[in-house]
Design brief:
Length: 434
Amino acid sequence: MMGLHGCTLKLASVPNFSSPTFLFKTPTLRFQKSPLSRPIRALSSSALVQTSTTKATEDQGVKPQWKATIDFKWIKDNKEAVAANLKNRNSDADLNLVLHLYDKMFTLQKEVERVRGERNAVANKMKGKLEQSERQRLIEEGKNLKEGLAALEEDLAKLNDELQQEAQCIPNMTHPDVPIGGEDCSTIRKMVGSSPKFSFPVKDHLQLGKELDLFDFDAAAEVSGSKFYYLKNEAVLLEMALVNWTLSEVMKRGFTPLTTPELVRSSVVEKCGFQPRANNTQIYSIADSDQCLIGTAEIPVGGLHMDSILSDSLLPLKYVAFSHCFRTEAGAAGTATRGLYRVHQFSKVEMFIFCRPEESEHYHQELITIEEDLFSSLGLHFKTLDMASEDLGAPAYQKFDVEAWMPGLERFGEVLQQLFPFQSSETSLYFLWP
């Protein structure tokens, strides 16, 4: 039981830049004819600006600001499709407000450029030989234009922040095969095995754990609060054995093992599609800092090649990462959360692939096959679900859940999620081909 929550496997891909199914626009790629032997850090002006801005804000103790590269023109041109997607995913994002703010910002940007042009024209006039009265007049005009431009730029910055805040609430578009509706509309992709029959009353994991001295919730509650636990005795060995076995099996399939940082910058969390400061967030934020505890290894692995250029010859890059994960579990309650369900800290193994956009579907299927093979090897009765649209998180294009039969609960319970995919452009990841 301990290891079931410790095996979550996911896919990320470099998306198809010409595809209209992603809202986030990837910046211009850098090309190089000879393949690179290893990833290199991007030397684009945007990367340099981000680095210097981050350094300055760190020195001042202020949270670095990050702006998503969102294709607002695509959203505007495909308003009906985006609106339908919001409805299908039961999202409360305000599309009309986003488009209103975008139009307003577009108009204000033009005004900023007009005033900046007038200021530059005045500056150029002052380079020549002028009468004193004319020079004085241009000085006053330049001063007024400078002050007006500063006010407009301040308004533009505030408007851009508001637009970003609202636009980042819009979820990714949805795979056409995803069933529409709530969780009960999810479809079964595969069913393996059958529920075991017992000739004796079945005990749940809480009863077994207490009788076998496998964990201690009471001591953990005193030390850390509710929904924490100590694993003890054979439970410790079982979790470690399951993690080690999973890593070994996945490595046989060409994956590079990783352990990851468990504290990351808030900006990296946001780039992976999560909202660390939002209401009912699952992310723990560190007070007076720009850091968060990870809720999944997907976040630090997704940032592994951030601001990098990957050679096409290096793809696919396959990683299997072990980490501890931390979640607030905001809103979780009920009998399904007793014991080792919906805890605030747990161990997890995660698969992650960086691949070419046209190969995404192929590796998606490879990952789900690996997952099903692993659970079959454990002799579990499980089913794989293609989750319905309302059950997708904002970054997800499609999600498969694996649910195993829980004899103590007499029902299936989630033991794995697989998301596919999210945008590489959010971590400024580029790739090159010959």
